[in-house]
Amino acid sequence: MRIETDLKLGFKDVMIRPKRSTLKSRSEVSLEQNFKFLHSTATWTGIPIMAANMDTVGTFEMAQVLAGEKLFTAIHKHYTLQQWNDFLQNVTPDFYNYIAISTGTGQEDFAKIGHVITANPLLKFICIDVANGYSEHFVQFLKQTRLQYPDKVIIAGNVVTGEMVEELLLAGADIVKVGIGPGSVCTTRVKTGVGYPQLSAIIECADAAHGLGGHIISDGGCKTPGDVAKAFGAGSDFVMLGGMLAGHDESGGELIEVNGEKFKQFYGMSSTTAMDKYVGGVAEYRASEGKTVQVPFKGQVINTILDILGGLRSTCTYVGASRLKELTKRTTFIRVSEQENQIFTK
């Protein structure tokens, strides 16, 4: 046993210090980025915000709206081959730049993505998603996937430390998903005691990834557009959102009415709700590591997207970054003990 004594920080612990800017308007800020990848020969251009691969967020309907704004959706892994085929009949080639097919690490998972990709070879992105990216089994599955799909862009996670980011990149990942426990419906930290404050995880993992020519996704912990800006400022290449995109028309989850108010169900993919739905319940050797909540119904997701993008452009104007790519170079974080005046907050 040993203790690391340096303090690790989350989004709530910092704010971004403003700097002199030559920008006259938020409209001058470009949020689009261009990426080349470590292993795949593919390139990508778009706004690097992602919908999480949860069945109450990463739906086909969500992907249609986000792709129209050049944002990305990691489609959840529970759609069938027939559902994939039916959906992709009606999309343009450009649409494939903004979606990933998600998978677990079982051999049935490997076979399933094989069937979907064989039927839809224009799919470019594969997201290998597990709660614990530190297992040797996960690394071996990643290597197997890279051998099978040498030209695809492979996203792999989740991890929170630099040495594991490096291992996953060397094993075949192009993009590493970073985050253990920060999500709004994740209970891993209280069930296991394991985790890493998200801001510090991004800083450490971005440094490791960029040194090898790889990329990272900050996955979880964003409550506000300001948190999204902090994630980019800390060095993340992409930011993945779950709770912020839940509760919309395009989100999955049951629509519920309580005392005349509308809500949508939202739950973690390691929750009892998800495991009852997909694997017949929580196995006796494990515990649920997610919660189920009712999110106030928010209507169309485009309104939330425009609010997030507007906040991000505003961040860039406060620090003089004309492009999102410049934000991390112009970010100085200051430690704080409070974020906002909450006198009129419910």
Q: Could you walk me through the main structural features you see in this protein, from its secondary elements to its overall organization?
A:
This protein is an alpha/beta fold and 346 residues long. The chain is built from 10 helices and 15 strands. α5 (162-171) packs across α7 (198-212) and α8 packs across α10. The longest helix is centred in the C-terminal third of the chain and has 19 residues, at 301-319. The mean pLDDT is 95. InterPro entries: Aldolase_TIM (IPR013785), GMP_reductase (IPR050139), GMPR (IPR005993), IMP_DH/GMP_Rdtase_CS (IPR015875), IMP_DH_GMPRt (IPR001093). One of its GO terms (molecular function) is GMP reductase activity. It comes from Flavobacterium azizsancarii.
Throw out a few tags for this protein.
346 residues, alpha/beta, 8-stranded parallel barrel, 3-stranded antiparallel β-sheet
Question: What is the topology?
Answer:
Elements: E1 14-16, E2 33-36, E3 43-46, E4 49-51, H1 60-68, E5 72-75, H2 81-88, E6 99-103, H3 107-119, E7 125-129, H4 136-148, E8 153-159, H5 162-171, E9 175-178, H6 188-192, H7 198-212, E10 215-219, H8 225-233, E11 238-241, E12 255-258, E13 261-267, H9 272-278, E14 292-296, H10 301-319, E15 333-335
Parallel strand pairs: 4-5, 4-11, 5-6, 6-7, 7-8, 8-9, 9-10, 10-11
Antiparallel strand pairs: 1-15, 2-3, 12-13, 13-14
Helix pairs in contact: 5-7, 8-10
